[in-house]
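Good day; I would like, with your permission, to put a structural problem before you. What I wish to show you is a protein chain and, alongside it, a tokenised description of its three-dimensional fold. Here, with my thanks, is the record as I have it:
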Amino acid sequence: MLTGWAFLLLLGGVVFFGAAVQRLAGIGFGLVAAPFLVLLVGPMDGVSTANCAGIAISGLGLLATWRGVRLRSMVPLVAAAAVTVPLGAVTARTLPEPVLLTGMGALLSLLVLLLVRGVRLPALRGTAGAVTAGAASGFMNSSAGLGGPAVSLYAVNAGWSARAFVPNAQFYGLVVNVFSIAAKGPPALSGGAWLVAGATLGAGLVAGHLVAARTPEGRARRVILALALGGGLVTLAKGLWQLAPALA
């Protein structure tokens, strides 16, 4: 595992890019950054770092969008996530790293493909759909840092507009990431790593804001999903490579 300046440089780059993507498209930090953070600092600390970044990004975003939050719609999502977040934390702590990497890579790749196809599922509509999406999202957020796709699929099936989705996704992201950190604890990063992550997260948000005005939403979404799929496949490949000796 990398250490010293090389580690800090890569950590800062991943956080910067993930934050810029999040600001550009409203979602995407976990999709883009989580798999690379996992490869950089390991499954547990990588996911926890993504959770901490999600708290900061969602909290800052809510400062400007909190009036658009539909609290009544958020209750079943948040309540279901509160139940499954501890299960995800236990899963992340108990599974061997190769198995966790393989599962995370496969799950991320599948979720990206579902998002690309805009899958419509009757089970993700109404209150029951919100509970289903919240439960799946809470588990995936705590275990893999990938809570966003399940909520995105719910929003698509519920017919939410992009304007309605952003503030509610930020509210949900803040709450579920707080739950996740409470269940697992913060990542074991050095003081220097925290400083680099904080500074590059802020810089990434500013950069994403500047680019957003010049980038069509559809193009940004395609780039984000392509990068997320690449990260998922790389994580899957590393997990399978580590599993190979045991399977031989």
Observations:
- The chain is about 85% helix and 0% strand.
